[in-house]
Specification:
By secondary structure, the chain is of the alpha/beta class. The chain is built from ten helices and ten strands. 45% of the residues lie in helices and 16% in strands.
């Protein structure tokens, strides 16, 4: 494979249908190098196909979520061949963002500190983003002459509008967790001490819900940005047809009619 697997850079914990994936380069604020990309790709492929994972949590070890690309991996000395950053995006970051968006189960980002550069946009590629109140979201690309990548220029204006997106991208100023919640950039800011428990409780809840139906919801909302109303109505019809054929739909209706809690199996 093109990138050596460095499994120590990614920690995976599985428990009752929840897979918690931890970026584990705390001494580098969990910034990405090729080995960590390969390990994360391996972990996501495993949880997608293991048949038991129904919710994914993505977080970072230590005092930060992710500082983006490890700049020490690039040779920018005088006379060095300029790196092809487009190839890096094509082969590493873009597939990662698309994988997070397409996983057929909810993905929660637990942002426990700084989320900068690609690290910010990888968090925003998750379905629900929780952040510790001390966390900060930074589009740091402008500080080194680059363009927001990993979906940043696509997701930011859709989440917070053109002015705020441009302000974040052109100025690179930190956005606090509470401000991010107020803007609609993330789902919720919580006290630092409560982040792990809050996310764990939500992940445990989601892992008992109708996973296929949640995956269809995720697919419908993700595709809506590129559809007109007629196209979206057609997609809703197609997904609803598939949802209506799941065992969880049958169980949900039976439980409702029987006035009892539903027991969903994710099938």
């Amino acid at each position: 494979m093109p990138n050596r697997l460095d499994l120590e850079t990614i920690l995976v914990d599985r428990n009752d249908g929840v897979a918690t994936i931890t970026l584990n380069r705390p001494e580098k604020l969990n910034s990405f190098n090729a080995g960590m990309h390969a390990a994360l790709k391996h972990a996501l492929t495993e949880v997608e196909s293991d048949g038991v994972t129904r919710t994914v949590v993505l977080t970072g070890a230590g005092r930060g979520f992710c500082a983006g690309q490890d700049l020490g991996d690039r040779d920018v000395s005088d006379g060095a061949e300029p790196p092809d950053l487009g190839e890096t995006l094509d082969t590493l970051y873009n597939p990662l963002v698309l994988k997070l968006r397409s996983l057929p189960m909810p993905v929660i980002a637990a942002v426990n500190g700084v989320a900068a550069g690609a690290g910010c946009n990888i968090a925003l590629a998750c379905d629900l983003v929780f952040a510790a109140q001390s966390a900060k979201f930074i589009q740091a690309f402008c500080k080194i002459g680059l363009v927001p990548d990993s979906g940043g220029t696509w997701v930011l204006p859709r989440l917070v509008g053109r002015q705020r997106a441009l302000g974040m991208a052109l100025l690179g100023e930190p956005v606090t967790a509470e401000q991010a919640q107020e803007w609609g950039l993330i789902w919720k800011a919580v006290p630092d001490a409560d982040l792990t428990a809050t996310v764990s409780a939500l992940a445990a809840h989601l892992s008992t819900q109708p996973t296929k139906g949640l995956g269809f919801i995720k697919q419908a909302i993700n595709q809506s940005a590129g559809h007109n109303l007629e196209q979206q109505l057609d997609l809703e019809r197609d997904l609803q047809r598939m949802a209506g054929r799941t065992n969880d739909y049958r169980e949900g209706v039976r439980a409702f009619m029987g006035k009892r809690p539903a027991i969903f199996r994710g099938s």
